[in-house]
Design a protein that fits this description.
about 160 residues, mainly alpha, 6 helices
Amino acid sequence: MAQKKKPAKKTRAETIEKRMTANKKNFLKELEKMPIIGVAASKIGVGESTVHRWKKEDINFRRLCADAMLTGKHHINDVAVSKVIAGIYNDNKTYVIFWLKHNHIDFSPKLEHRHEHNIDNILTNERMKEIADAVKAWSQDDEEDNEEYIVSNKEDDVD
């Protein structure tokens, strides 16, 4: 009867790589829940410096971290908004005032300018020619200034 071959033992490097890949994946999941690197790192049992090393060594992981961080911020924002709304429904005046100041124009402490723009003022061909001539004259002045600068620097080099 033929004996079964035993699978080759994994090398230490393969084991470490497998564990690191799993840790990175778990870290990204935690970062989506709580967008603070130190908190997410401690939840999976690695140091913050380890995460920064991973980001430095692996550009793809760095991009995934940025995406997870953004997702986490959106998540926390949703949680915060739901708390504010819950406070409003519980008749908490602080939440009511906060909401109105930031979401209702009549209660906003910001100074707002309200006016309309009249865009019927179209440039005439004559005015466009004047502007083109001014730009042309300006660029000629710049060229002359540049030539004078070059000449003066050559004279300085002769001395």
